[in-house]
Amino acid sequence: MEQSFETILARDRALIEDRLAELFRQDTRYACVQEAMEYSLLAGGKRVRPVLTLEACRMCGGRVEDALPFACGVEMIHTYSLIHDDLPAMDDDELRRGRPTNHVVYGEATAILAGDGLLTAAFGQLTKAELPPERIVSAVATLSAAAGPSGMVGGQALDMAGEGHALSRGELELLQSLKTGALISAAAQLGGIAAGATREQLKQLDRYAQALGLAFQVRDDMLDVISSDQELGKPVGSDRANEKSTFVNALGLENCAQLVEKLSQQAADALAEFEQPEFLAWLAHALADRKQ
Amino acid sequence: MEQSFETILARDRALIEDRLAELFRQDTRYACVQEAMEYSLLAGGKRVRPVLTLEACRMCGGRVEDALPFACGVEMIHTYSLIHDDLPAMDDDELRRGRPTNHVVYGEATAILAGDGLLTAAFGQLTKAELPPERIVSAVATLSAAAGPSGMVGGQALDMAGEGHALSRGELELLQSLKTGALISAAAQLGGIAAGATREQLKQLDRYAQALGLAFQVRDDMLDVISSDQELGKPVGSDRANEKSTFVNALGLENCAQLVEKLSQQAADALAEFEQPEFLAWLAHALADRKQ
């Protein structure tokens, strides 16, 4: 069974990689921005968010292929946020996924533009879906709300404001729910929207994704302490270097491990009313156990 | 007649100002980004693009109010582009519309986030239109294409790459058509889309807006030479200081004046098949004669 989940995951990722690699192929006039966008977009990564989109669509009775433009749009938003977060004026990170960050390679101006380009093109990508137009409108509204000032952008602002202060667990959870949870939830919901899910199903997907997103972040904070640079693809201990509050600081490693366990079970439980929740339930546990 | 055009323009601008001022009123949790977004969004400005959206909608038989969310979305994109273009890593400008630029007031990190927030929220704003969903999808696709890597973002990249080189008239026209023309054309087309314009009408709106956009840019370059700081709201001569190629360098002031005249007539002529093209034809001439 585990085997077949891995197979599904690999197939989804291949679909996503192929589509992402095609996106900017026709534009050759603006080579420097295009190259910078592709540098970060095609840097590997776990593709957690677009996989969520595809598999939430399948779980809600839709065809995976129909959700592919939504999945790519979500990953483009995620990628732009990494490029901008790494900028010298923001987190000033020089290594990401084992490679120099975008601005280190292309310079700050091009990195800003590459982020802007991916963010702008993401919404155009949603409109490529061959789906009823009201579903596309709903996807645009959902993604904009999740990624915008009341979601991810607001979370990054809170994160910057919180540097150097010790945040409480509650403050960390609010920060996480905005900075990473909102987009992860949007990823799952866009899959549901592609499949024509009911409002109730979208709520269940949101509950699943919020628990999974929080588990993911807590695990991330743990890996920043217990992993090696090589496994992680970025320097371990960077949270401490950036004076970031983390769940490990707030709770300790052992409590974090228990919390991750509990949250991934909550995520799986949120899917109880779907007919075929097995893959997404497995994914929640697999992400909670991940090594990188 | 002139009087009544001014009245229409003032009424449109008031509609736009009111709506823009309401946009972020409900979000108080992320005060610093919200304040930074409003600082630039509500800084006055000519509101050329959203006026184009409203009046193109009216000219195509639609109701101005129906196009208001599209108009605001376009202005949000324009505002984000100004914030990011002014950043130290880009044009490094400290004055805009007579006030310190966003990053001078709020710092670089918040200015980047304010731009990202406006860009992201712009697409959400389009979905607020009470219009058939296929028109909203078309608006999202049009705005994304115009503002993205094959449009405005690509133009800004070309602009950065061209600094310090003398560009030919042809290169300048390509640069302008991407950097400012694409969004001006999208502004007009979104008005048409809101009204359910035909494909042929959208083409005419594009021809109108491309000519108007080029006239606007040539006039802009002229004003950078012949205006005073106070009239312009930013330092005159900044193009020279930034080693930007301009139409004035390429053609000389007198030829520029003739070109602006010719282009604004071309813009007006492109509207010949509409029943009530008077306002937009007047607007093209009014912008060509502007002092700031």
Brief characterization of the structure:
Two copies of one chain form a homodimer. Chain A has 292 residues and is mainly alpha-helical.
On the 0-100 scale, what is the average pLDDT of chain A?
A: 92
Strand portion of chain A, in percent?
A: under 5%
What oligomeric assembly is this protein in?
A: homodimer
Largest interface by Cβ-Cβ < 8 Å: A-B, 52 and 52 residues
Radius of gyration of chain A: 18 Å
CATH superfamily of chain A: Farnesyl Diphosphate Synthase
Q: How many domains would you count in the coordinates of chain A?
A: 1
- Top CATH class of chain A: Mainly Alpha
Biggest sheet: strand arrangement of chain A? 1-2
Percent range of helical residues of chain A: over 70%
The biggest sheet of chain A amounts to: 2 strands, antiparallel
What is the global morphology of chain A?
globular
**What is the CATH fold-level name of chain A?**
Farnesyl Diphosphate Synthase
Show unreliable segments of chain A.
none
Element order of chain A: H for helix, E for strand: HHHHEEHHHHHHHHHHH
C-alpha termini separation of chain A: 23 Å
Structural write-up:
The structure is a homodimer of 292-residue chains. In chain A, strands 1-2 form a two-stranded antiparallel ribbon. Helix content of chain A is 71%, strand content 1%. The mean pLDDT of chain A is 92. The longest helix of chain A has 28 residues, at 199-226. Chain A has one domain: Farnesyl Diphosphate Synthase (Orthogonal Bundle). In chain A, β1 (95-96) and β2 form a beta hairpin. Chain A has 292 residues and is an all-alpha fold. Chains A and B meet through α2, α6, α7 and α8 of A and α2, α6, α7 and α8 of B. Chains A, B: InterPro entries: Isoprenoid_synthase_dom_sf, Polyprenyl_synt, Polyprenyl_synt_CS, Prenyl_diphosphate_synthase. Chains A, B: Keywords: Isoprene biosynthesis, Magnesium, Metal-binding, Transferase. Chains A, B: One of its GO terms (molecular function) is (2E,6E)-farnesyl diphosphate synthase activity. Chains A, B: Its EC number is 2.5.1.10.
